[in-house]
Amino acid sequence: QVQLVESGGGLVQPGGSLRLSCAASGFTFRFYVMSWYRQAPGKEREFVASITQSSGRTNYTDSVKGRFTISRNNAKDTVSLQMNGLKPEDTAVYYCKSPDYWGQGTQVTVSS
Predict the structure, then answer these.
(1) 95 contacts 105 by C-beta, under 8 angstroms
(2) By percentage, how much of the chain surpasses pLDDT 70?
(3) Which end of the chain has fewer CB within 10 Å, C or N?
(4) Pairing of strands 10-12, 68-73
(5) What gap in Å lies between CA 22 and CA 18, rounded to an integer?
(6) Tally of CA atoms within 13 A in the half-sphere of 70 that contains its CB
(7) pLDDT class of 56 with cuts at 50, 70, 90
(8) What sign does the CA torsion over 58, 62, 65, 71 have?
């Protein structure tokens, strides 16, 4: 069955960095656009970033442009999100998403 398993979340101070990873299985990973979403407490789940099948094109929500970088490794069926310059407003549960499936999420907390 399809599985998307996120890792790498945690507590970080403002200005710090985290790298999230998502390990995919159960489908032909290299055929699909992959995305990261996040959901802050009391808010709707929102798009963060996406990457095309061959990594040729990436897309970011405006609030993370220049700070976050999405990448993928089709040989290892993984997609990552490098997050630099973290802000308290980046605090959320981060989800990995294929077109039809969601991971379980990983908590990112930015606080001093």
Answers:
(1) yes
(2) 100
(3) N
(4) unpaired
(5) 13
(6) 28
(7) confident
(8) negative
